[in-house]
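Every protein is a chain of amino acids, and every chain bends into a shape of its own. Below is the pair of lines this work produces for a single protein:
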Amino acid sequence: MLRLPDGWWHEGWSALPDGGLVLLGSFPDGNGYTRALAWASPHELTLQPVPHVDAGAFAAHEPFLLGIPSGGCVIVTDPLTAWAHQAPGSAPREIRLDGGAVFTTVEPSPRLHGGCAVTTDAGASPAWAVVLSHGVLSQERRHAADLTIDLEAGTGSWSGPIRTLRPDDYPRDPFGDDDFGEVGEPAVSLTATLRHGGALLVISEGSDLGSMNRYGSDFATVAALGADDAVTDRVWERSGWKREPGKHGVHGRFTSDGRHVLLTPAFRTGEWKGRQRVLRLDDRSLLTPALPKGWTKARLLDGHGPTWWLDREGELMAVADPELHAG
């Protein structure tokens, strides 16, 4: 059994093309916290502290992990700096990032604070749409910025404009009241992105992430974007939750191979009763995973090809081709 350190806090993760999994996280060490990469294969877990990635609290930016389609990962620590890690125990390679001025084109300047970005571009210079939070409301992930990294040269560059989803494209219903009045500027969340086959897909988890745990969300959408970041295709969507009994909300992320979306309910209300669903992108089938005995309460973290990874309160397990049932 693979066990993460006690008190481990997930900060990011990515399934790898060789069947492994890399996680970025922090855990208490008696003198504060240690930030580390955890490299998991089906039979071994290797912990690699990353002292070059600051573990300070209340930082302007939080480290953002990007899985590299050809293997390994990149940790983006701020708009000017990233670190490439090729394999367990390999020395980190610093990558200087240009184009950070694009962050100043939005007021207040967005920050790196959570979210998930996936690309299937396996070339020497993969590109991601990196998720960014509101500059003050760090729980509100609302933006994305394009980042290209030349893995051979060890350089990278941001490019604009900063992406912000168009509120009118989404079924906003923040109060479940036809007569609600706007509070502040209309906005919707942008929590995950996928670059795949020349297309950009995004996930929005509703109008207000900051209050989801207290009040629930109004909608969840997986969409393809076109010019001006307008929705060109609603791949999957649920809405109207504020008009239904109980609290509702779904957290979504794209799998690292770009083939599926993991949909994790935030609550045990509604038809899913808290159980995950898997959206298969090629035919848009909504599937229910059948988890192994003893792991039925675990959650799917990610998948790449035939290998999927489960997390059960800090225990990790790789599963080959888990059963996915319709419905």
About this structure: Helices lie at 212-215.
